[in-house]
Design goal:
Layout (H helix, E strand, L loop, with lengths): L10 E4 L13 H14 L3 E4 L11 H15 L4 E6 L4 H10 L7 E5 L8 H14 L4 E5 L1 H4 L5 H7 L5 E6 L4 H8 L8 E4 L5 H6 L4 E4 L7 H12 L2 H14 L1 H6 L2 H11 L16 H16 L1
Parallel strand pairs: 1-8, 2-3, 3-4, 4-5, 5-6, 6-7, 7-8
Amino acid sequence: MTAKETKQLNGVIPAIITPMNQQGKIDYGLLEKQAAYLSNAGVNGFFIGGTTAEGAYLSTEEKGEVFKVVRRVAEGRQFLCAAYIQPSTDAVLEQMRALESTGPDFIVAVTPYYLSMRQEDILEHYRRVAAAAPAPLILYNIPGNTHNPIALDTILELAEEKNVVGLKDSTGNFIGFSRGVLGDSPEGFVWIQGEDYLDGPSLMIGCDGIVTGLGNARIEPYIQIYQAARDGDWQTVRECQARINILYGIIRLCGNSIAAAKAASELSGRGSRWMRQGSQSLTDAQMKEAAKILRDFDQG
């Protein structure tokens, strides 16, 4: 079986948060509750250890434990993507080897970060990761965090690698993303939108899936928008996107998408507001505003 004949990579893929207590320690009980909410709602897969999970701040041991909890809750109903957010190729390879026994269905890696990278450096990075990966590799383009974007030509070149199966695009650049979706990428290469504001437009042009961090708050409109797109019900797609835009008000409130998702999960009884970098957590006053946004959303 080749990489591109494994589990189907598409649909609604929540980037699950990592609930923590006020001291910045992982609350595995709340993680189980959040994973159960998402799994029982009928998502297609899980994106574990990524940006929304504060993956860059989790130890390798913590990532392994988080993955095990989500895998136990999912019970095989969802595919599992393990994100290894590391600043260098060697660091990705080291973490990938350390966590190979967890058995992810897909591996996710960002570009190297901190130092500036040329496109040839990014190509070499992903080729090395893909060659060593025990599961198909998803490229993760998030230059707002890495400061090293993957150019469209580089994506298309990497798409030819046999163990590279798709891209999660968190650039917010719909021009580049739409060119990729509507362009000449190899058959079977998967295009996944990672910006909540662009889910509807991306599904309308035929993208394969959406990864959402904000969906930790309310996953239902994401499931509805994906199903509507599959049915060709474009009016419902537009309506769902409008509701997602309202939910996005929590992010606008605090300017931090991770803190917003965590705060909303606390208000829903299946998470906590606390960030590993504690000063990033929402204040009590912000929590009151977030609660109002959620009430307005639920009543809308």
